[in-house]
Amino acid sequence: MLRLDQATYDAIVAHAKRDHPDEACGIVAGAEGSDVPSRHVPMINAAGSPTFYEFDSTELLALYKEMWDRDEEPVVIYHSHTATEAYPSRTDIGLANEPGAHYVLVSTAAHGNSEGPVEFRSYRIIDGNVTEEDVAIGDTEN
Amino acid sequence: MPIEVRIPTILRTYTGGEKAVNADGATLSALIDDLEANHPGLRDRLLENGDLRRFVNVYVNDEDVRFTGGLETAVADGDQVVVLPAVAGGAGDQAEPAAR
């Protein structure tokens, strides 16, 4: 299960809506080994595309170095699908290289930049195998 | 003359779980050969058809080697090499997923 606080959930949804119709992407970092996503880092989609996302390679290195300095890891890696459902594509599965991360997909297909609900789902993607998991939004107790 | 190479989580199965390993070489290409000698299987995860995989990033002293000569990039004692898989994906299937 993925547990995410309300403010981070809202920020991810807002990012996805803002960047629609291009895909939005980013991470939520957390203390190494904690499985607690605590620091939202929206990233620029260097591909600037409605069907593809990629972190800029220089920004990717800066992000990881910052996480290493803080003893963090990417607990959540998220991106949006803007015309299709929030389910990992073949591309998503082939390029999923963080076996410890929760892969979050947000679909903005229904309402685009406008207000209205989005599809927000989370998966584990390990060795090409996709497992959906529950998402619990709310302030974490511990 | 060791050069420290930072290994991403997904490739640590090749390094016995080590986050960083030492290697030698005058170029990135030679360095990867040396890595392969001590950690068999690693080269195939970095290279494809003799070139760096599209969705694997390698940095020498914070510079993406795609901008510094690729596999011919010179490396020397004390340099820091970082390997990071791209964070990428998307709804479209036109992009070629990294082969495994």
Automatic annotation (TrEMBL), chain A:
Residues 2-129 form the MPN domain. It comes from the Bacteria. Keywords: Hydrolase, Metal-binding, Metalloprotease, Protease, Zinc. GO terms for biological process: proteolysis. PROSITE patterns: MPN. Gene3D superfamilies: Cytidine Deaminase, domain 2 (3.40.140.10). The keyword Transferase does not apply. This is M67 family peptidase. It comes from Nocardioides marmoriginsengisoli. The lineage of its organism: Bacteria, Bacillati, Actinomycetota, Actinomycetes, Propionibacteriales.
From TrEMBL, chain B:
It comes from the Bacteria. PANTHER family: SULFUR CARRIER PROTEIN CYSO (PTHR38031:SF1), SULFUR CARRIER PROTEIN SLR0821-RELATED (PTHR38031). This is MoaD/ThiS family protein. It comes from Nocardioides marmoriginsengisoli.
